[in-house]
């Protein structure tokens, strides 16, 4: 049986206002999947509901036939930079070390091998020389690389990243997408909330097109078509446009 991520009839509302309406999709594992839609489309809300970080009104989520709660230790989540408290007094090395905590032994204290692994993850994202810096001292791109390193430290099978390319430099974006593709090639499954339509075809294998409702879910070459995009964005657009981030 093929291993899949299945979301069925997902509905989410805030204070009685429907934000995600009857969304269903199914993807085989081992793919890099973009989540695209206009500003306020419910992209981030959908991701959080799928992960159980916010309550859903109805619907089900299964990963390889199991509920999210049963596979939570296999999931790494990188939130939007805008909701992170960058003034929290923690250095880069310790931030990445937090990623090892779900797999620590009974004493719940990082060991030498955990610290070594955290250092390797920092090296993977090109931040090995910044280990003793406070995270508040870093640029936006550097901060995003550190949080990706923390996700790598979790040794997860499923990665969920919410707007990882917003407000970062070109070099950091290139580093991050290269790592995400490497993870994909290793059989990992990655979902990315994304806003830059000009990069969709270069970055993703599959696409989820959402504006409260689902307007397409499947291979990029089938979903990323003018008629689908214009229905979703409710305007005539060029597919090289770069549109705003969503909720």
Automatic annotation (TrEMBL):
Belongs to the ABC transporter superfamily. InterPro entries: AAA+_ATPase (IPR003593), ABC_transporter-like_ATP-bd (IPR003439), ABC_transporter-like_CS (IPR017871), Metal_Ion_Import_ABC (IPR050153), P-loop_NTPase (IPR027417). Residues 5-237 form the ABC transporter domain. CDD domains: ABC_Metallic_Cations. Pfam families: ABC_tran. This is Manganese transporter. The keyword ATP-binding applies. It comes from the Bacteria.
